[in-house]
């Protein structure tokens, strides 16, 4: 643990009885050493690790929370540029269409990649929920398989919905559902998934986006393979590179720009908090309809804008 390494290297070393239960001055001095070297999120994780260790061992947590909050805020402000992630740009429907133009939908890998792209985008999901970390790491109990997909109708109107019962996610260890419906145009996830099933035809217990490699062997779609193929298509189309989270951000923005309410987008993206509202503040395209000098948008604002900020 980083905290204990810090304690051991101090001159003199921090005594054991000051590490557990940890004294406020010791923890603050530790954060002072982190400032300018680590990102604010890394420092928070270190602190929460120390706090969790106290909880596991039934030790009292006597740290002054006000001082701790102030110290963590200072560390965040001093995050070195090398530790800051570049801004993640949202994927758009137009971007997806141009990438599709560089893929050969008669090829097993290409059709699997595009089906994965459209599913992640339109279900506002995390890419990691639909690809595997590596080919050899595929586990039917942890990763989505074809048997996890169901198609049916929902609600009084009987509208068609495709549901993906994810076995395990970042926020739900016991699994949760993701959903999309058919969309008009070249990025229709239903058509893309059907094409993938026609060409690759994974079995019920195979990875959902498994593709047929040399010798007709089914291979789970790994994150690395996915990105390598997408990046080649992106380069050929002269587009800006994407990262996995760009699909999730793009899905959020697409639905918000359609006028779908924030509450519905929150449910669709499976957020338990209002963290996704960060997208609202970062992208002017979302704010534009709300800040015009016209009363015509007032009903739209009342329906779509979250109640806590309208």
UniProtKB/TrEMBL annotation:
Keywords: DNA recombination
InterPro entries in the cross-refs: DNA_brk_join_enz, Integrase-like_cat_sf, Phage_Integrase-like_Recomb
GO molecular function: DNA binding
One GO term (biological process): DNA integration
Keyword Metal-binding attributed: no
Domain of life of the native organism: Eukaryota
Name of the protein described by the UniProt record: Tyr recombinase domain-containing protein
Organism: Candolleomyces aberdarensis
Biological classification of the source: Eukaryota, Fungi, Dikarya, Basidiomycota, Agaricomycotina
